[in-house]
Design the sequence.
């Protein structure tokens, strides 16, 4: 008898630290100051980002898992944390033409995971920038 | 573990669910069977399945969903550690695995 596959979501949390300065080349100095306030200060500031990656899929009959945590952890450490931890986000190529807000960081991380992690379906990337604010991205057709 | 229920807000009580009732159902159907148990040997679901957190979330859903009459079960979330959790929404998997 074939057992029915159930779909579950698995979420893993990771930490990394990085700095950024919110400044858009499309705005004047004054507009930047008004829009971004302290976050526009010339030398930037840092955050301890808390990243959540949510994947989903059928719970495998044999293993009882959605995906092997070693695979997900290995991927995120190599492709995400090594890329972003202790970096100045403004200097990275993905932010050459966009402002490294946490919204854009969510999208950048989502795109990397979506493109290269094949072991489960990516549902969501969520980032807590501070204890008081968080952002999430579920893809262009997301919720 | 987090259990999320949903439903219409009762106009008289202002509740989605009577929390006392939910707590009773939780205790009887889930906690009594699982708390302080060796999942592999003492919980019938895991005589034939691996007690991963995914399967635990599914087992709790299956114990709970049929016993709720006032509200509908929306999500079972289980934190295995502070940085790892599983959500189950009662969904079957459709499509390529």
Sequence:
């Amino acid at each position: 008898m074939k057992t029915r596959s159930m779909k579950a979501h698995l979420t893993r949390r990771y930490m990394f630290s990085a700095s950024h300065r919110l400044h858009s080349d499309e705005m004047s100095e004054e507009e930047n100051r008004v829009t971004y306030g302290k976050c526009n200060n010339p030398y930037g500031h840092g955050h301890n980002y808390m990243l959540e990656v949510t994947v989903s899929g059928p719970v495998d009959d044999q293993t009882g898992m959605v995906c092997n945590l070693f695979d997900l952890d290995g991927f995120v450490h190599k492709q995400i944390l090594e890329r972003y931890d202790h970096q100045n986000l403004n200097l990275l190529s993905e932010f050459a033409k966009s402002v490294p807000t946490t919204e854009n960081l969510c999208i950048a991380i989502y795109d990397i995971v979506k493109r290269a992690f094949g072991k489960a379906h990516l549902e969501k990337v969520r980032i807590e920038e501070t204890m008081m604010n968080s952002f999430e991205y579920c893809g262009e057709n997301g919720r | 573990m987090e259990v999320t229920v949903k439903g219409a807000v009762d106009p008289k009580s202002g509740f989605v669910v009577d929390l006392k009732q939910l707590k009773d159902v939780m205790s009887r159907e889930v906690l009594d069977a699982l708390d302080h148990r060796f999942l592999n040997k003492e919980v019938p679901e895991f005589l034939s399945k691996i007690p991963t957190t995914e399967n635990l979330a599914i087992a709790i859903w299956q114990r709970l969903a049929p016993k709720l009459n006032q509200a509908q079960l929306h999500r079972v979330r289980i934190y295995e550690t502070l940085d790892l959790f599983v959500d189950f929404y009662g969904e079957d998997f459709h499509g390529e695995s």
